[in-house]
Amino acid sequence: MNSITKKIVLSISCLCLVFLGLTAFVSFSVEDKITESEYLTVTNRMEGLLSQHLDKKFDIGITNAVGFAANENLQQALATGNRALAVTALSTISDMYKSNTNFKGIKIHLHDKNGISFVRNWDKTKFGEKLTDLRPLVTKVIREKKAVNGFELGNVGLMIRAIAPVIKDGDYLGSIEFLQGVGSISRDMEKNDTTYMLLIDDKYAKKSPKILKNRQFNGYYSVNDNWFSNDVVQKIAQIDVSKLIANNRLITDNCFFISIPATLYDGTVIGHHIIGAPRSIVETGIAQSRQMATLLIVIFGAAFIITIVFILYFLRNMIIKPIKIIGENISIISAGDFSQKVTFSSNDELGELAQSVNNMSQHLSESFQNVLNNSSRLSQLASQLNTDSEVIQSGSKEQCSAVASTITASQQSSITITEVAQNVSSVSSASENATESVSAGSEMTKATYELMSQVGETMEDSSKVIQNLGNSSQKIGTILQVIEDIADQTNLLALNAAIEAARAGEHGRGFSVVADEVRNLAEKTVTATQEISSMIEMIIGEIGNAVTKMEDGVKQVMVGVDTAQQSSESLQGILTNVRTVSADISQIAVAATQQQSAIEVIESNISNIEEVSLKNMNTANETVQRIEILNQVSDELSAIVNQFKLSHI
């Protein structure tokens, strides 16, 4: 049998082999990546170095151009067209740069406001050509009146050109151009053991005849042979420039070269910046990176081995050893010694396992002890069963006699119940007839109640109509009072009219007659109104009496309605009770029938009991024999349990 230790050691050995294989694979894979990463790092460093030099050139160019544009002599020369003054001023500036800076190849070109060449500091005899046809930067400055800079081709070749507008008192006088080469960049880099050269593509070199006079390298021309030392030219001549530009990178025996596209101000690629550094710089970085990678692999390997050793130690002392202890105790317990306990203790799964084994041993010991105790009790119970069986045998004989008497009594009960069922059936028929009568009376009471309710509602409506009539009569009396007031006023007006007619004499006679007629009419109106008012008061009194009588009638009708309602409810209650009694009688009839059937079943069951009693008596005899066998088995079980060594409970 293979032990757990051997299996674990074998697994860890396989894991070590896999780790070693992965380490070897990673080493080979990382080596190429380290080399490529170092090449990329050096490339980025060289690109950054060139970018710093070019940015410095651009900043100097634009700063100087703007500064020169503020020169009063140059402003006056452009304003007056005085070339001699401009030549003198430019010569002074050029001499100052040559003597105080590393910029040996700077050129300054002055243009008038129409974009025509005014003065060149490197060729003072050449001027007057129109620049806007070939020089987009000049055109841009004239259009925008702002300073610009960048690489641009011209008659002198590819230069870093910074052009600033010359403005005085708001008037655009022209522009000044500060031209720089890249020779100073090459010289500065060469001091740091770095090679630099700017090459221009053959297609663009043909646009500047002066560039075609320079040295050619695999279809590319040096932008200016005077800017680069012989050592730089020789190093570039020894490499395949086309291959370098195609791959952006080239490694020789001594140098590491990169190629960076050279663009005009508008982004057009016209050539390439070639930068070379000693190969030892790259190889030193690669060697350092490899050493770091190797060190990391060694550290990881050591950490892995230490981890494996720790795991083996942990497994041996914390898992395997406790398992052996538990296994030995389980073997002792399996041999029948339940008093043995596992002495190992720990607050983990193994500790729980040891405790479970101890609990199992304890439970088994208790179970066997219970079996032993129950075996003794079983022997005692067997003796008692023997005695009880004899009693049962005697009781079975007595039970047979009692069963015969019970059969006779049940037959008499069956006859009595049959008579009860017949009497209940007669009562049930009478109850159903009573239910129908009460139901009919209840329906008639409901009809009376509904009719009385309708009469009450009708009388109540009539009372309301008469009350409305009384209210209308009162309103008529009010109107008659108004008419009487109007008649009194008319009589007074007629009297006044008669007085006025009398004053008028002969002319007022006709008016006097009319006034008398009006007064007579008013008096008749008053008399008629008073009669009508008396009649209305009498009508209102009669209406009041009628309303009172109608209200009394309504109250009496409502009393009749309440009485009808109570009668209907009482009949409904009687009907409910009658129906309940009828239902109970029906249930009694059914129960009597069921009892009759049940007694028949009882008679059959008692007969069966008689048969069972006889069988019980025979079974009791057989039980006595089986109890004797049970005593023998109990003795054998006690002997088997006594073979185990039990713990004290």
From TrEMBL:
- Using the record's annotation, list all stretches that form the Methyl-accepting transducer domain: 374-610
| Family per record | Belongs to the methyl-accepting chemotaxis (MCP) protein family.
Instruction: Recite the UniProt keywords alphabetically.
Output: Membrane, Transducer, Transmembrane, Transmembrane helix
Which parts of the chain span the membrane according to its record? 292-315
- Location in the cell: Cell inner membrane
Q: Which InterPro entries match?
A: dCache_3 (IPR029150), HAMP_dom (IPR003660), MCPsignal_dom (IPR004089), Sensor-like_sf (IPR029151)
What PROSITE patterns has UniProt attached to this entry?
A: CHEMOTAXIS_TRANSDUC_2, HAMP
The protein depicted here goes by the name Methyl-accepting chemotaxis protein
Residue ranges of domain HAMP in the record: 317-369
Biological process terms in GO annotation: chemotaxis; signal transduction
Q: Which GO terms describe its cellular component?
A: plasma membrane
Entry-linked PANTHER family: LYSOZYME-LIKE PROTEIN-RELATED (PTHR32089:SF112), METHYL-ACCEPTING CHEMOTAXIS PROTEIN MCPB (PTHR32089)
Cleavable signal peptide: none
